[in-house]
């Protein structure tokens, strides 16, 4: 059976009370079954990031990071239903932003989607929603241990509207200017990783440094390495669906991208562990291994559906080596971005986009039967320049617009971006959450927490004298 064709006279795909709307997908149902299955797997990334951030943070702010990740899912779902999907993927509109034709998901149902004719639009809409939510969750790492929760949620809603949706339009809509350049971005090296990394950097810059960040907060002292491992495992698993479903069909290209994703994460671990063995004179860092896996996953994201198996492994290895060598990046740029979002996602995304321009192969992209795009390895050297154009456009736009948006929100009464000195001293958990959920043993019962309760009358000076004591 031929692929379904979008009929503008029946934008919802037909009246299900009059006809069997499933018949248009008869014989090709495996495509949307596959994509919705990938979407279920992608969902694991979101709690995975929450667990990772919580484990990397000090104990006194671990619950706040989990809570923010959970709330972001809800906020971005509302944003996407409200106007996010329409701004990014409406069929009309220009190369930079869509229209409000699908405002409130009007006419979004079972007609063939704008992204793939073999997907009902509601499936395509849900899959892309998860990309947006994952990106915003990555961004909140920039507010590490000092960001106020309500302003961060407002920022997430606005940022998804004026930053993520335009970038998704540029990159993945058939009318987008980067799509037609063309730049090659298989699954989000630009809109997801470069954008989130640069935005987290802007967030940390606007907030300023944490109190005593240089002397009293060691950069690599996670409060729970087990959570770091669990978060990384969830992210790795979810990334398989993230990249595997980005063909938007169940083709052989999807299967290759899944293998490439696993290969890059594996060589990413090896690259980072190698650097750590040299740096620490024969000692290992488990957190470093987890960072290596994420660096490899970030690097392969724009390339997974464009490169061969061994080149995918090389991309993961190279990306992790470069990110690992930037251990002191925050000191060099003098911005306290303690969660290393910019280093892993921003720099990793830039490296991945650049290497995609070099290693992309038409013989791999053609595995879906419709895409024929290659890079320098196929003799198309100009593709490297196109990739650099994408990197520059997305990084500059994301950083500048995010910084301006943050300053504007900070001026709104009641929306101060940074918590007060007292709350930062005792930790976001005690300062922002009900005591019954914290207890005297900290999150998950790990170590005694002593400090001033947020409801007490202690002064900031007293708070500094009774700051959280950890094992």
Automatic annotation (TrEMBL):
It is found in: Cell membrane; Membrane. Residues 34-431 form the Ammonium transporter AmtB-like domain. PROSITE patterns: AMMONIUM_TRANSP. The chain crosses the membrane at residues 32-56, 63-83, 117-141, 153-172, 184-205, 225-242, 254-275, 284-303, 309-329, 341-360, 388-409. The keyword Transmembrane helix applies. SUPFAM superfamilies: Ammonium transporter. Pfam families: Ammonium_transp. The keyword DNA repair does not apply. InterPro entries: Ammonium/urea_transptr, Ammonium_transpt, Ammonium_transpt_CS, NH4_transpt_AmtB-like_dom. Keywords: Ammonia transport, Membrane, Transmembrane, Transmembrane helix, Transport. Gene3D superfamilies: Ammonium transporter AmtB like domains. GO terms for molecular function: ammonium channel activity. GO terms for cellular component: plasma membrane. It is a multi-pass membrane protein. NCBIfam families: amt. Belongs to the ammonia transporter channel (TC 1.A.11.2) family. This is Ammonium transporter. It comes from Aspergillus ruber (strain CBS 135680).
